[in-house]
Amino acid sequence: MTTFNQQNILETIRMIKIHHLDIRTTTLAISLRDCCTSDTKRTANKIYDKILKYAKNLVKYANTLEDDYSIPIVNKRIALTPISLIGESCDNVDYVYIAQMIDKAGKEVGVDFIGGFSALVDKGFTKGDIRFFEQIPEALASTKKLCSSVNLGTSKAGINMDAVLKTADVIKKTAELTKKEDSIGAAKFVCFCNAVTDNPFMAGAFCGINEPECSLNIGVSGPGVVASAIDELDKSADFGTVAELIKKMAFKITVAGELIGNKLAKKLNVPFGIIDLSLAPTPAKGDSVAEIFKAMGLEHAGAHGTTLALAMLNDAVKKGGIMASGFVGGLSGAFIPVSEDAGMIEAARKGSLTIDKLEAMTSVCSVGLDMIAIAGDTPNSTIAGIIADEMAIGMINKKTTAVRIIPVIGKKVGEEAEFGGLLGTAPIMKVNPYSSEIFVKRGGRVPAPLHSLNN
């Protein structure tokens, strides 16, 4: 007969009801490699049909499990094979039409977002890639659920600076096309260095070409759980004690996530892929990575010591997660999106958190500069310089880094953008006023670092 520990039961209830433990996303990854044809409409219809085939019960089954286990499943999402690869086989491909058909399928199955409107251009462009880049802004402006990403560099290939420049143009044009909604289109676009193929989080999720026909990836989150646990520690507890506590909490969170993931994958009759243990915050009070820093003893996110706090947090989360599951993947660690974290928003408003400090923090966090709003008149070359710096951190450190930055058209430093829902509120942050134009327009490819020669 199974025995239950009353304290563990009560702790789990507290984690869910009070400290915002949730399954942040169930993301169904669907391969589209068999959808390539020479005709745009035929290709789009095949993609539409395949999404409906595999994802028709995703939301229903996830909701059932949410009720059965009383663990919130916040988002239900789909990740597709990079569309630039699929559409390239079409004669005179219309990527906007494909995007709209994907969005239609997303509405039909009831998911929150669909990722995979993506391109992998770290070493250069094909003709199809160039056409794809040209159509990203209109695709994002004419859809609601679609998310887009591009990979601009890797530690093996270096950085495609021509693509960095094009990406800055894409971001600015997307912002212009959605300026009536505080340039929200740019919030659905992210650029990467060392993008991973099994990431369940948006806007960067896609189904890599090495992934199976269909699989289910889970993203778990619990910054409130971790912050609460640390807050209960004695303020004199040393760093080793704090790290050990984070590991234990990460272990418990991962166990809960893998349980739900395996159950849902079985219901959908697809393989369970990975669990991404990322402490991804929301704008809700008490669900903040910045609050973890405060619990550790920092007055605000951005204070001196924040980078160390984040490094320790990221490392302990990964250690705890890997102890709980043999299938930890994706990005796994701690996210630092400004607009999606109530504590980060507060720190940015107070001036404690700046873009320069965030850039330093990205050297040790899970991803990079995320959900940062800047003035709408920021030069494209400055945006390209911000992206280039972040790509360099990823390339040199052999880690995934990213930039999701929103130039909010018509707004200046000191004002705020309202995106709503999980995307939250973004204070317009100050950027360095000095020009990067001559530097970034050199173009070409930044050579890979010496450690790429490790075969």
Which structural class matches the secondary elements? Answer: alpha/beta
The major sheet is characterized as: 14 strands, mixed
Helix content: 40-55%
**CATH structural class of the largest domain:** Alpha Beta
Return residue spans where pLDDT drops below 50 for at least 5 consecutive residues.
1-6
Q: In sequence order, what are the helices and strands, one letter per element? A: HEHHEHHEHEEHEEHHEHHEHHEHEEEHE
Strand fraction band? 15-25%
| Assembly status | single chain
Give the helix/strand layout.
Blueprint: H1 6-17, E1 22-30, H2 40-55, H3 58-69, E2 73-80, H4 83-87, H5 95-109, E3 113-120, H6 127-141, E4 146-154, E5 158-160, H7 161-177, E6 189-193, E7 214-221, H8 223-231, H9 239-268, E8 272-279, H10 289-296, H11 306-324, E9 333-334, H12 342-350, H13 355-361, E10 369-375, H14 380-397, E11 401-408, E12 416-418, E13 425-429, H15 437-440, E14 445-446
Parallel strand pairs: 1-2, 2-3, 3-4, 4-6, 7-8, 8-9, 10-11, 10-13
Antiparallel strand pairs: 1-7, 4-5, 5-14, 6-11, 12-13
Helix pairs in contact: 2-5, 3-9, 5-6, 6-7, 7-14, 8-9, 8-10, 9-11
